[in-house]
Structure formats: C-alpha cells, structure tokens
Design a protein that fits this description.
The protein is α+β, with helices and mostly antiparallel strands. The protein has helices at about 5-20, 25-35, 100-110, 115-130, 135-145, 145-150, 175-185, 190, 195-205, 215-220, 245-255, 260-265, 270-290, 300-305, 305-310, 435-450, 455-460, 480-490; strands at about 1-5, 45-55, 60-65, 130-135, 170, 220-225, 225-230, 235-240, 340-345, 350-360, 415-420, 425-430, 430, 465, 470-475, 495, 505-510, 515-520, 525-530. The protein folds into 2 domains: about 1-220 and about 360-400, no CATH class; about 225-340 and about 415-530, Gamma-glutamyltranspeptidase, small (S) subunit (Glutamine Phosphoribosylpyrophosphate, subunit 1, domain 1), CATH 3.60.20. The strands form 4 sheets. It has a 7-stranded antiparallel β-sheet. Strands 7, 8, 11, 12, 13, 17 and 18 form a 7-stranded antiparallel β-sheet that branches. Strands 14-15-16 form a 3-stranded mixed β-sheet, with helices on one face. A hairpin with a 7-residue loop joins strand 14 and strand 15.
Length: about 525
C-alpha cells in the first residue's frame, strides 16, 4: 500500500510495488511523481527525511535536508539595526537552501533499491511531458499564488501566464521533464552537475541568491540512526535531529502514558488540557535544545530520559492553563559515557518506509529555475534569523539553530514507524509546518489509546499548541462547544483554524495482516494498494 498527497503519485508507487519493487523503490518513484503532480510541496528542489524499517526489524534513517549555502551568514536577514527584514527569508532567491532531494533518492537507491533507477524516475517524466489533470484544490492553489509567481520569477514559465486554472485543466511541465530525463540518465550528476547546475546558478545570479555550483557539488545527504523509544506496548521509530519531530513525539507520548486519557475521553476537557500543557513544555525544549547535530551538541539522551520528561510536567495543574511566559526550556541530563508532504509505504515483503519531504512554504520561495522547470525551497526560514524571533510558523529558536554555512536547518518533520510486540504496526507522518509533530502525536493517540481506525484517526479533528504564541489552534468543530468552553474557563486562549491542521498519510497493519490506509480528507490524498 501507498498513501500520499495525490492519487496519481499513489498510483505510481503502487505500480512499482506490483512490479516487484520494494518500499524504497516505491518511495523514490513517489518522490519524483509528487515533484510533478503536487508542486507546492513535492519536489526535487527541496529536501526531506526518510525512515525505514525492514522486514527483519532493522531500521535506518536518511537525512536529505537542505543546507545553508557557503555564502550564508548568521545575520543575513537582518537590517543595519539588527531587525529582521520581513519576507527576505520566505520569498525570493535568498530564501533557498541547497536542495537535497535528488542526492537523497540516489543514496536510498544505492543502499536499498532493487529496481533499475531509470524505471523509478520514468513515471514522473511521463506525467510532466504528457500532462495531467488538475484537481480542484491544486487549481485553486495555482491561482492563489499567481501574483507571487509573477513577482519573484526572473523568467516566467508559460503556465504562470495563464490567467486562471480550473479543475480538469491539463498541466504540462516540459522543462521539468527534461531535467528529470537528465536525472534518469545521469543520476546525481544530472542535477548537481552539468546543465541543471548551470541553470540553477544562473537563476541565483539573476535573483541575487547565494547557491553556487560549488554548493551543489558539495551537498551530501546523510544516513543517521533513528530515534527510538518504548511507550507502553509500542516502539516508536522516528527521525533524529536535525528533525525535532522524533524527540518531541516521544516526549509527548511518554507524558500521555502517565494519564488515563481513554477514561477521560477523546478531546474531552481533561484530555485536551493535558495534551496542550504537554505540548507547551515540549515546544519550549525544541526552541532551546534542537538543531543540526553536525554543528551543535544536541542532548538527545537527556531529552529522551523518562525521568526528565516526567519532571517537565512539574507545575502542571489539572485546573488551569499555564502561562507560556512561566514555562522555560528544561535542563536535560548530560548523556552517560532529527510546506510539506508525507507518504507512507508498506511493500509485499513487509518493509515499511515513512517519508516527509518539503519546500517549506507552499510552492517554496515561489521561484522556478528557468529552463529547468523546478521550484526552489524557502527552507532558510527554518533557521533562527534572530534568537527568539518567530519564523513563518511562529516557531522561535536560539543558538542551536542559528544560520551557518553548510548547516542544516531545524525541522518539525516527523516520519514515524510504530512496532507493537516487535511487529510492524503503523506507518505515519504529516505535513503542516510546526503542527506536524502534534498532528502525528494525536493520530497515534487516536489509534493506540482511543481505538480509532487508521482512517478515522487521520480524519478526526485536531488542535495544536507550540508554547509561543500562547494560544491553542483548533480546527473548527474539533473540540466541540463543551470542551472549548471548558478549556477557556481553565485559561486557555483558543483560535479557530479554518482549512484544517496538517495533512497526514498513515498505514495500519490489522491483526489479520491486512493493511488499512488513512488518506487525509483535508486534501486530495489517496491510498492505493493491492
């Protein structure tokens, strides 16, 4: 089974599996297909994280997160008075980090792939060259972004010039098809060297960006050891730093394990209050302690120490909300002598892959590389432009996530795999910026504590708190009038979120071995299996 953000990408992955490909083969094909049919987040100009659990229980994690260019510096988004210049890290060429997606897919194939590389890239080439019909949601997003596309592109792709897109219109990416052909034929060199690298560097020069051919040549994705933690009957396998997702998720699930949430009821006042208070404390830790482990010593063992996690709930009151100004990052014990889209895959052998990939904001920095046809990310905004200053998602950070050349920016992406009693149980992850962690957390709780089906857990209403700003973001109807009033009485400030919080893709292994997909109704997401 494959569950992704677009039905055509899910079909591509399922076709690879049906031809005998393994989960990594399907993941590569889906990644490239999403770069075509889901351009606001699927990408070759961005990056991501991949978590793998093989049928024998062995695990691995691939970090193909973007990096800061060599010319980047700590104060690059500040004016002479050290104030953050609005939108400079979000829109336009200066917002882009060095892309990691293609290198990541090549490394995944070299280590675990079973089918020929060209067979995995070809489906995306066909979609880009022959065109595909737009869904209603994708047509709407293209129309909404038209003004920014016109403003920030130095040479405008023809499709941008169309005044309005409608559901069912066919979209073609001829330049992207040629770039994908180079990747198909030359692998890593088809992107990081030769014509594509030349076009990307030329684009940077026209738009006063920083990425050079030397940055592209130097980029390398990294295999890392997954974060792992036992919570009750479940083993949580997730992404380590520079993702904050794995650590934060295990902290949240460990805290919740100490409280009788099933008895309190799903999204009841008691349950929601406890979960919000836990999120408040965990996001405070995220801001202080998490960053690129190649540049900053992240206290992973201390942050995952069960005693430390439980101490973080000191000051929690069942009767009232904590003021975020009174919540500070903890001091973890030192150790003794890691706009987005997610897809989940389980192959016929029982191998599982959980992948979250991103351009950061929808359509990244809005810039298409002229002649190459792909969008660039705006991941530089995920650094701390200034200590304590919020990014696009309202997240704050400190020294651990300061800008430095060659450094990977902190992420909330949380690709995760669960085992139950030593066997594969769930593959889950989400999109949604800072809400990714809480989305994955609530879905896991929905299944493991409240007995939801996979689809029910993904579809259920969600809420979110991230320490700062100090309010609870809640989907319309997620809390219900009784819970909303009850939380307000306790002192929580609730802000309604129209349009949904996050979008998730999950697969649950049922007791009889069948697979149940959870495709998010907030988008065009689809499950495809056989």
């Amino acid at each position: 089974m494959v569950v992704s953000a677009h039905p055509l990408a899910s079909q591509v992955g399922a076709e690879i599996l049906s031809r005998g490909g393994n989960a990594i083969d399907a993941a590569i094909a889906v990644q490239f297909a999403l770069a075509v049919v889901y351009p606001d987040a699927g990408n070759i100009g961005g990056g991501g994280f991949l978590v793998l659990r093989q049928k024998d229980g062995s695990v691995d994690a691939l970090d193909y997160r973007e990096k800061a260019p060599a010319a980047a510096h700590r104060d690059m988004y500040l004016d002479q008075e050290k104030n953050v210049i609005e939108d400079l890290s979000v829109k336009g060429h200066l917002a882009a980090g060095v892309p990691g997606t293609v290198d990541g897919m090549v490394k995944a194939h070299e280590k675990y792939g079973s089918m020929p590389w060209r067979d995995l890239v070809q489906p995306a080439i066909v979609l880009a060259a022959k065109g595909f019909p737009l869904t209603k949601k994708e047509a709407k997003k293209l129309n909404q972004q038209r003004a920014d596309f016109l403003k920030y592109n130095t040479q405008r792709p023809s499709f941008i010039l169309q005044h309005r897109w409608h559901e069912g219109d066919s979209l073609y990416f001829k330049d992207l098809a040629r770039t994908l052909e180079l990747i198909r034929d030359k692998g890593r060199a088809g992107f990081y060297e030769g014509p594509t690298a030349n076009l990307l560097e030329a684009e940077m020069k026209r738009g006063k960006g920083l990425i050079t051919k030397a940055d592209l040549a130097a980029y390398q994705s990294v295999w890392r050891t997954p974060i792992s933690g036992q919570v009750g009957k479940y083993r949580i396998i997730s992404m380590p730093p520079p993702s904050s997702g794995g650590i934060a998720l295990i902290q949240l699930l460990t805290i919740a394990q100490d409280y009788p949430l099933p008895a309190w009821g799903w999204n009841s006042v008691k349950s929601a209050h406890l979960m919000i208070e836990a999120e408040r404390r965990v996001y405070a830790d995220r801001a202080k302690h998490l960053g690129d482990p190649d540049f900053y010593k992240v206290p992973v063992a201390g942050l995952l120490d069960t005693a430390y996690i439980r101490r973080r709930m000191y000051g929690y009151s069942p009767g009232e909300a904590t003021d975020s100004d009174d919540v500070y990052p903890g001091i973890p014990a030192p150790p003794e002598s890691p706009h987005t889209t997610h897809y989940s895959i389980v192959d016929t052998q029982g191998n599982a892959v959980s992948v979250t990939t991103t351009l950061n904001s929808s359509f990244g920095c809005k810039v298409f590389v002229a002649g190459a046809g792909f969008l660039l990310n705006n991941e530089m905004d995920d650094f701390s432009a200034k200590p304590g200053y919020p990014n696009t998602y309202g997240l704050v950070g400190e020294e651990a996530n300061a800008i430095a050349p060659g450094k990977r920016m902190l992420s909330s992406m949380t690709p995760t795999i669960l085992e139950k009693d030593g066997k594969l149980y769930m593959v889950i992850g989400a999109m949604g910026g800072s809400t990714i962690i809480t989305t994955v957390y609530q879905i896991i709780q929905n299944v493991t504590r409240f007995g939801f089906t996979m689809q029910g857990a993904v579809s259920a209403g969600r809420f979110h708190h991230q320490w700062l700003p100090d309010w609870v973001l809640a989907e319309w109807g997620a809390l219900g009038p009784g819970t909303g009033v009850g939380l307000w009485v306790k002192g929580h400030k609730i802000a309604p979120k129209y349009g949904g919080i996050g979008r998730a893709a999950g697969i649950l292994v049922l007791p009889d071995g069948r697979l149940e997909g959870g495709a998010d109704p907030r988008g065009d997401d689809a499950a495809a299996g056989f």
